[in-house]
Amino acid sequence: MSINAETEKRWYVIHTYSGYENKVKVNLERKVHSMGMESEIFKIVVPLENEIEKKNGKEKVVSHKVFPGYVLVEMIVSDRSWYVVRNTPGVTGFVGSGTKPIPLTEGEVKKILSACGEDAAAPTAAKANIDVEVGESVHINSGAFENFAATVSEIDYNKAKVKLIVDMFGRETTVEVGFDQIEKI
Fold first, then answer.
1. What are the CA-CA distances from residue 109 to residues 51, 72, 106, 138 (Å)?
2. Do 144 and 107 contact (CB within 8 A), yes or no?
3. Which pLDDT score, from 0 to 100, does residue 40 have?
4. Which CATH number fits domain 136-184: 1.20.120.420, 2.30.30.30, 2.60.40.10, 2.60.40.1080?
5. Phi, psi torsion values for 130, nearest 5 degrees
6. pTM, whole model, 2 decimals?
7. Cross-referenced SUPFAM superfamilies, in alphabetical order (predicted)?
């Protein structure tokens, strides 16, 4: 079997056994390193999205696979790189027609990577760190509501925003501010 070597790196989708996405990523990373394939296989990504789940009145950030059974690989396709990926335990094959893998378009890659936080422009729970929980009291340190005390009502890790309840003129008002605009009391 011969695959025409491409000179540019592109993103490809590999199909895995369901539930083996992370194992495939780890195994493939080890293989790339041990076989010296860093110049042909660059990034291996299991697209994840963070969701806030409420359980017993507490909110918790949980990661879910965006595409269960699939892993993204940035690589230059050659006979050798194709063989390394294809023969990694847990991999069932490339997504594409027959024996030739079909790369994702740039638009598809940007959309997928930014949605799962791989793009620096999209803050995620892993990148946006905040040390408060729902129900805690905070002090707003900048913006239109500077110097107000508030209670956290909702945390949006994907947007790096917090919804707060502020007491204004004897009425509770909901405001939304960035993580950097509050500090824990």
1. 21, 9, 5, 38
2. no
3. 93
4. 2.30.30.30
5. -140, 140
6. 0.58
7. N-utilization substance G protein NusG, N-terminal domain, Translation proteins SH3-like domain
Question: What is the residue type of 171?
Answer: R
For the chain, the structural domain boundaries read 10-116, 136-184
pLDDT in tens, 113-162: 877 766 533 333 334 567 888 899 999 988 888 899 999 998 887 777 88
Distance CA 76, CA 4 (A): 10
Q: What are the backbone angles phi and psi of residue 26, rounded to the nearest 5°?
A: -65, -45
Does the 10-116 domain belong in CATH 3.30.420.40? no
Burial class (CB in 10 A: 0-12, 13-18, 19+), 98: exposed
What torsion, rounded to 10 degrees, do the Cα atoms 116, 119, 121, 125 define? Answer: 40
Length of the chain: 185
- Helices marked H in the chain — which ranges? 21-34, 79-86, 106-115
pLDDT per residue as tens digits for the range 27-81: 999 999 999 999 999 999 998 877 777 777 777 777 788 889 999 999 999 899 9
